[in-house]
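Quick illustration, no need to memorize.
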Amino acid sequence: MSFVDEITVYVKSGDGGDGCVSFRREKFVPKGGPNGGDGGRGGNIYIVTDGNLSSLMDLKYKHRFNAQRGRHGMGKNCHGRAGSDITIRVPVGTVVTDAESGDVIADLVKIDEKLLVAQGGRGGKGNARFATSTNQAPRYAEPGEPGEEKKIRLELKLLADVGIIGLPNAGKSTLISRISASHSKVAPYPFTTLSPHLGVVNFHDFRSFVVADIPGLIKGAHKGVGLGLKFLRHIERTNLLLHIIDASADIPDAPLKDFETIQEELKAYGHGLTEKKQIVVLNKIDILGKNKDRLSDACRLFDDIGADVCAVSALTGEGIDGLIERVGDNLLKEKESV
């Protein structure tokens, strides 16, 4: 199934039914009064979050939602039936925006959260409503009010504690597969991951945190190059970033250059991504073998710029337990400071 995280839909709530002009017509009742009923309200359109959904795929082929209009009022004080409501189900973490004005309507971050996006039109009053002592036979009724119509943009931003970022082939998919039950596709070529993956990581005291594997970023990602721009939004909500870097490169300063490339993209994208706590993870140390000097040199490069760095092998599992503990402790400290 494809991963769809942004879509625009048209919504139109139901029009209200018209009020009725009617008079009582019965035998032996020569002067029956007005008995026109009210029109029913139009159907509303709601957006509801569903914890079982992970993308907006269900809306890919259905872009228009029209709620039922209210029925017209009838004689004998019979009111029209209200139009049926429509519910649009979306994943938790969906941001609802007015597509024309760009104003954010709501940020839905709780399960079963319900948002009214288009209210149905009010039904018109029948002529029975207008009868008074001085106007005992009103021959008019109200028309129903039109429903609301608008275009709304639905944008999914994953809810994860930790975002895993890095250049293609840095080993992000292997890492998330190692530390969680997520089964990300792993292969030795760029852009193995074409959509974000979520995984739950358990650590001490029966605690856990959620990690998101973000598809590979490359230079120019903030301009739409590669896959970066499409998925950068998914790390906006994270509390911590794991920056995975391939430590097996032959060029001594290659890890630092890779780090700077991603930092430039985060800065260009904005939204406070560079202000998030980051842990630099030097991966693929198993390839280095006995050549530990290259690893020491790489760690020294990041120590010099004040980065929080650790070394692991996502393939063999070396250093993974220590990484999980470090991430868990950082998240706990952040929650305690709030």
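Confidence is low (pLDDT under 50) at residues 185-194.
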